[in-house]
Amino acid sequence: MTTSLDGVPVVTVNTVVVGTGSAGFCAADRLWELGQTDLVMVADKVNAGSSRNAGSDKQTYYKLTLSGGDGDSVREMAETLYSGGAMDGDNALAEAALSARGFLRLCDLGVPFPQNRYGEFIGYKTDHDPRRRATSVGPYTSRSMVEQLEKKVHRNGTRIYDECRVVDVIVSEGAVVGLLVLRTDVPHDGAESPFLLFRCTNIVYATGGPAGMYATRVFPNGQWGASGAAYRAGVHGKNLTEWQFGLASTHPRWNVSGTYMQVIPTFVSTDADGGDEKEFLTEAIPSYGQLMSLVFLKGYQWPFDIRKALDGSSLIDLLVYRETVLRGRRVFLDFRRNPVQPEFDPSALSPEAYEYLDRAGVLFGTPIERLRRMNEPAYQFYLGKNPYVDLETTMLEVDVCAQHNNGGLVVDAWWQSNIQGFFPVGEAGGAHGVYRPGGAALNSGQVGATRAAQFIAARRTFDPPSFEAAAPVLDAAAALVEAASARAASGVPDNTGDLLREVQVLMSAKAGPVRSAESIQEALVQVHAWLSTYESTVSADASSRRSINRTFLVRDILTSAYVYLSAMADYVAHGGRSRGSVLYTDPSGSIPHGLTELPDVFRFTLDGGALDDEVQETSWVPADGFVPVVPRAADDPAGEPVFRWRPRRPIPEDDDFFENVWREFREHGNIH
């Protein structure tokens, strides 16, 4: 049903699914299959986002073992996920229990996961994986998932509102009542309102991670995230400090994992103009065999892991970071020549690397010859991208990039947040811990979407509540645009693009894979200044849909950056040290092997699992049991993020006696 509020269309519906990636489409399809067809989907761009446009050499899906004679169980997989640290046990158990269901559903929809002639879905080991639970359909596993799920949603007839920027989540008395979006295909200076309101009982928030915070990122163009709106509405954050970084090409953006590293290319750095070319890994790794073996290991130890930074494969990431960030140089992979010496000498490799390359039949030639023998599609991939890169003739520029946020918006066992009716799923939801097996994110998105749909269909099918809270939210958004447009009309230059770039560069420089208490505080002071004065300084051209769109996008990114930086400052104040994919500078810590000439920014002390049993939660607004890390004035326009540390929820030990579970299932479906 569509009505209006002050000239703004209002769509009344039970559930709004925000985001058209694999998690969003899964949620919409599951709701429809469960009989809850009163739903719509909303996207800023249907064809954008990480699920559809991101991948790697062999993009992985992680699920319960479904082949061979190796033992596995739901409990064992849950324990693997839980062992990553700071992960809640009920989320781990659900992700394990529903992994086969979600995976086989994708197979039935047409995702071509490989199986042998007897129907076993063959697996392989991925990072942080004790079994062979991983599988893949190639570089674009998640794209294949999205495409098949999207076809199903279209067959269902679910309506999709495209080109809608999230402005605000509308909450009243601790529950969702609606969503305000900006229609980016409607001119702001025309007769039609560019705003659109959704009055709803539930929001499934599948907006992806807040990728727009970082300049150096492998997230595809068009993946921005919309977490800021959730924080402003009172949704809590969880484990926000836990990002995953890794080596990726920058033009185009793509993870250089798997075969790209296993064929052992040469790492080269140049000055900003492409001159003064040199191999730089040898400065810290003089051993020819060790250098080649560490590069090889980056293939399946791809994410930067601080535990492997002293003398393991993640030393490579730090050496690249030194070149690009500390020295201001550019780094390239050269597949045309072997490292150190012209002739490839496999006898110097570690036994692990030698055996792998021997079984692949590539103990010869140059990296490009090995790549094309081992994985021709990996070579062809760059030929088909924009910009076009021929690895036989051209070096590939790379950097250590933000790749995935393991933290996010808080979720319970049904992926509902602390706000009733608000369900963050996929990367937007903070279901992961510090470490996670490769491919666990794709499984988590399907599981979270399924759990949210089950809960909504069983417990939240009632009509939307009162909508009085919408009017002040709409008025505030209109006032922001009016003030920004008036500044532009008075001659103040449009500053939305500049501010967007500035916050991204700041976050990559001060809050990336290498951080310190000082760098975090410097960034926090600057972001706080931008955010607290935003409404009085932003200037946007009313005749430009892009400019008005960026007015709300930049506000969202500044909000997210402010909350995330505050969480990082609180983590350090809580005694947090280096863990996961982040080095926190510790003046009394150790310097990575061979890097004694580096400044103290590279000194660190491992966390050693000290905080594995705790979860950090963050709130934009005051909340019971939360405390501030940096007290702000009561009238501070930027608000005051507050925090609490709680024990992580253990893996549940439910009664698994069949008759008892069956009785409970008959009575209430075991959804409670």
TrEMBL record:
One of its GO terms (biological process) is anaerobic respiration. Pfam families: FAD_binding_2 (PF00890). This is FAD-binding protein. PANTHER family: SUCCINATE DEHYDROGENASE 2 FLAVOPROTEIN SUBUNIT (PTHR11632), SUCCINATE DEHYDROGENASE [UBIQUINONE] FLAVOPROTEIN SUBUNIT, MITOCHONDRIAL (PTHR11632:SF51). It comes from the Bacteria. One of its GO terms (molecular function) is succinate dehydrogenase activity. The keyword Flavoprotein applies. Residues 15-259 form the FAD-dependent oxidoreductase 2 FAD-binding domain. The lineage of its organism: Bacteria, Bacillati, Actinomycetota, Actinomycetes, Micrococcales. Keywords: Flavoprotein, Oxidoreductase. Transmembrane segments: none annotated. The keyword Oxidoreductase applies. One of its GO terms (cellular component) is plasma membrane.
